[in-house]
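> run fold Thiamine phosphate synthase/TenI domain-containing protein
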Amino acid sequence: MHVDYSVYLVTDNTPAILGDHDLVEVVRAAVEGGVTIVQLRDKTSDTAEQIRIAKALHAVTKPANVPLLINDRVDVALAAGVEGVHIGQDDIGKPTLQHHLPSLKSPKLEQGFEPMCCSPNLTRESDCDAIIGVTANSLEEAEIAAKGGADYLGVGTVFATLTKENTKSIIGTSGVQHILSSLAQSAPEIKTVCIGGINAKNCQRVLHQTAAAEKSLDGVAVVSAIMAAKDPKKAASDLRQLVATPPPFA
Ligand code: TZP
Ligand code: MG
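> ok
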């Protein structure tokens, strides 16, 4: 499955970000504007509500061929039949990640742990093709996730952000570059996006500064730059265009 990571939207349903907008309508506008992949990140809704939202988002993303991933919740992803999951280091912990990531990727069932598949109805042996993403705040975390078989890494936090206040570490563009340089040797195939404080003003600079590494980013992941925008469609389309264009100072 070819996945375009260039403009990666991570949702947020908190009033501080979403205001009085409707989540599904914001994602619809963002997809129309050109986001290439979407992650449902919902820290407040219960399981049934998350499945309902995931299905509503999938009705928007699937016809546009935009993959939908669910943050943390393999069960929600399976129930909604979406394309994958994104797993945060804080959410399941390093030893668990190290242990379970290979079984998530493996087409073989491991005891007590269902591998993620595009649809719960698919034959797991043959059709397991889920996208698995993992957050990496450091080189160590990146290497563990890469060894475990992650398809992509969300590298960050690049810049301070109000969206996720308890972020462990701000690594800046130099931190991203450090991780990319090492991955160029150890996991050249793995895809990478950066996250944390990325917006239309800084995305080209971030891509440019980190591309000095032997491995360049495959895209930028944003929450507030689209979810909190007055016009999410325009915000998405601006980002898409900026990411595809070499910066004027290059
Ligand atoms: N993980 C690291 S930073 C972050 C997440 C989910 C939030 C990024 O939000 P924003 O609004 O794009 O800075
Ligand atoms: Mg998480």
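Residues 107-127 have pLDDT under 50 and may be disordered.
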